[in-house]
Records
---
Amino acid sequence: MSVADLPKIELHMHIEGAMPPAFARGLAQEKKIDISGIFAGDGSYRYRDFRDFLRVYEAATQVLQTPQDYYRLTRAVLEESAASNVVYTESFLAPDFCGGGDVTAWRDYLGAIEQAAAEMEREAGIVMRAIPTAVRHFGPEQAKRTARCAQETAGRFVTGFGMGGDEAMGRQGDFAYAFDMAREAGLRLTSHAGEWGGPESVREAIRDLRVARIGHGVRAIEDPALVEEIAEAGIVLEVCPGSNVALGVCRSLARHPIADLRRRGVKVTVSTDDPPFFHSTMRREFNDLSEVFGWEAGDFDALNETALEAAFCDDATREAVA
Ligand code: ADE
Ligand code: ZN
C-alpha cells in the first residue's frame, strides 16, 4: 500500500478555500454573477501572490449566498476529502461569509453545513468538526462578532475558534478580546501565525491569544529558541506544505522546514489549507512528503496520531475515528 492510501486526519482546511473551481463556476452561472476573471485558461483559480490570493478567494465566495449553497459546498468538499481517505477533518468556517457575522443568519448557515456533514459521515464515513474563524483583515471589532457566533453555537459540532486572513494587519494581541470570548465558551483555539509574519507573530499568538495550535507556524524555524519553546510547550503546528510552496512562503518542498521542525521535537501535522487553490489534496501532500523526505508509513502514522491528539473534538469522537 502506498502512503497516499493511508487514512488521514486533517486539522486545517478552509471550507470556502476548498471550493472546487467548477463548483464556483456552476453557482456563478446559476446566480448570474461574473467571476470569470478569477480563473486561468485551464479553469483553475488564478492569482499572483498572497494578497491577490485573498482577493480571488473573496471574489469566489460571492457565489455562496444561501445556507443551501453551503450545504452543497460542504457535501462537495467532504466528498473530495473522503476520496483522499481523510477520516476526520476540521474545517474553518467564516461567519463573515455566512450572513456577515449576524448570529441568526449564521445559525441557518451552520445548520445546513452540519446537516451536510452528518450525511457525509453516514455515507462516506468522514467526521467533520467546525471552527468558526475570524478574518484578520476585517479587524478586531468584526472578530468579536465572529466570536459571538462561535459562542452561541459552541457544542458537539462547533468545537474551536480560529483566525486567518492577512497576517500583516495589526498584531495578534489586537484580537485577544475575541479569543477570550471563545475560550470562555469552552472553545479550543488556533490562529494563523508564522506564515507571513515572523517568529514574533507566533510568540504573540501563544502569549496573547493563548492558542493550543498554530495555523502554519513554519517561520518559527527562524528562531531556534522559539522552536525549543514550542516543542517544550507541546504547541501543535498545522503545517500546510503545499500551500506554503504554492503561495511562496517556501521556495520548494525540499526547502520546507517541516522535517527540521519535526526532528527538533515540534508536534507537526499536515493539512491542505485551500486544496484547489494549490492543486493539492491530502493524498498528494502525503505522497510528496514521502518522496521528498523519505517518510514511510510509520512516520505518517505518527503524524496522524499527533493530529488526532490535537483535534478539537471529544474523546468519544477521537476513539471512534482512531
Ligand atoms: N485564508 C485561507 N487561506 C489562508 C492562508 N493560507 N493564510 C491566511 N488566511 C487564509
Ligand atoms: Zn489557513
---
Amino acid sequence: MAAAKHFTYVILGGGVAAGYAAREFAKQGIKPGELAIISKESVAPYERPALSKGYLFPQTRLPGFHTCVGSGGERLLPEWYSEKGIELILSTEIVKADLASKTLTSSADAIFTYDTLLIATGSSVIKLTDFGVQGAEANNILYLRDIDDADKLVAAMQAKKDGKAVVVGGGYIGLELSAALKTNNFDVTMVTAVKLKNGNVLEADIVIVGVGGRPLTHLFKGQVAEEKGGIKTDAFFETSVPGVYAIADVAAFPMKLYNEMRRVEHVDHARKSAEQAVKAIKAKEAGESVPEYDYLPYFYSRSFDLSWQFYGDNVGEDVLFGDNDPTAAKPKFGSYWIKDGKVVGVFLEGGSAEENQAIAKVARAQPPVADVEALKKEGLDFAAKV
Ligand code: FDA
Ligand code: NAD
C-alpha cells in the first residue's frame, strides 16, 4: 500500500467553494505544504456559473474564469496555488472517507490524511437513468455540471447547427440553456415536470436534461449528522464531527435570518460559506472566535438580455410591480413577498447596481407593509426609501 500523504488542511472538492476557501486560507496565513485541494476535475477551481452562460457561445474559456473572478476578485491560476505552497491534487476521485481515522482514499488507492477536513463536494446531476427512463443512455442526451459536460454540449451544438433541441426541466439549467440554444439558432422545446405518457414524440437532435441535483454526501453516510439532504453544520460550518467542516451546496446550516436550517445551492453562498469556515478554523486555532454566519439569500440568473436578482425568501403573498410588458424596450419589473405583514423577499428584473443594493437592503431589513395596494403603486420607490 502507498504511503499516506498528510496535510494539516484538506479541501475535498475543487469547485467554487474550494477556490474561495483556498484564497481565504492564503489571506489568513498558511505554510507551504499545509493545504491540499483534492478534486475529481482536471482543472483548478473555476466559477461554475460560467458553464451555462458565456461558455456556450463560446467566448469564455479557461483560464478566463478561474475563481475568484466571479465576485470581482483575483483570478487564481494554477501558478497561484504553487506559489502559495497549496497542493492541487487534480483528476483524483476520493472513493472512501473514514472520518474516525481522518483518512481519504482515492480510486487509484492513494491515501491522504488530514487534521482538518473541509467537505466541498457540491452536487451531482440527477439523470434520466435515475428514473429508469427507456433509452436514457442515448449519447445525444446531455447534462451540465462540469467543464467536461459543457465541452460535450458545445460539441453537440456545433455538430447539429440550427438543429432541434428538447430541454427537460424548467429550472435554472433549463431556462439558461434554452436561451443559449435559441441564441445559437436551435429550435427549442421545453418540457417541464410533464410526463409524456400520451405517447407524443418530440423530435430532437439533442436532449438536454436539467432536472435538479443532489448534494454529494454519500462518502460520509453514517459518519456525520445529516439534515435536509445535506451535512448538518453549525453557524461556523463545523459538522457533528469536530475538525470536519462542510461548505456550500452540501451544507445544511442555521439560517439566522429565518431561524431555521437551510441548504442553499447557489454560488454566493458557496463563496461566503467557504470564507466563513476558514475564518472560523483559523480563529479557533488562535483561541478566538468569529461572528455566526448571518446569510441573506441571494440568487441571480441571466438569459437573452434579461438579468434578474432576488434577495430573501419567496414565501407569503407576492406583490408585482413595474412594467413587465415584453414589448417594452427595457422592461423593469419585480415582486415583493410579504409574510406576517413584512417584506421578506424582493425580485427585480433589469435593476441597476444601486437598485439591486436597495432591494437587498429591504430583504434584510424586512420593513412592515400596512397597505399592499400602495406598495404595488410605489414599486421600486418603496425600496429606495428603506
Ligand atoms: P462545485 O460543484 O462547484 O464543486 C464541487 C467539486 O467537488 C467539483 O470539483 C467536483 O468534481 C468535486 N468532487 C465531488 N465529489 C468528489 C470526490 N468524491 N472526489 C474528488 N472530487 C470530488 N449559482 C448561482 O447562484 N448563479 C448561477 O448563475 C449559477 N449557475 C450555475 C450553472 C451551472 C451549469 C451549475 C452546475 C451551477 C450553477 N450555479 C449557479 C450553482 C453554483 O455553481 C453552485 O451552487 C456552486 O458551484 C457550489 O459550489 P461547491 O463548491 O459546493 O460545488
Ligand atoms: P432546479 O432544481 O433549479 O430545476 C429542476 C427542474 O426540473 C424543475 O423545474 C423541476 O420541476 C424539473 N423536473 C424535475 N423532475 C422532472 C422530470 N422528471 N421531468 C421534467 N422536469 C422535471 O435544478 P437545475 O436547473 O437542474 O440546476 C441544477 C443545479 O444547478 C441547482 O443546484 C441550481 O441551483 C444550480 N444552477 C443555478 C443557476 C443559477 O442560480 N442561476 C444556474 C444553473 C444551475
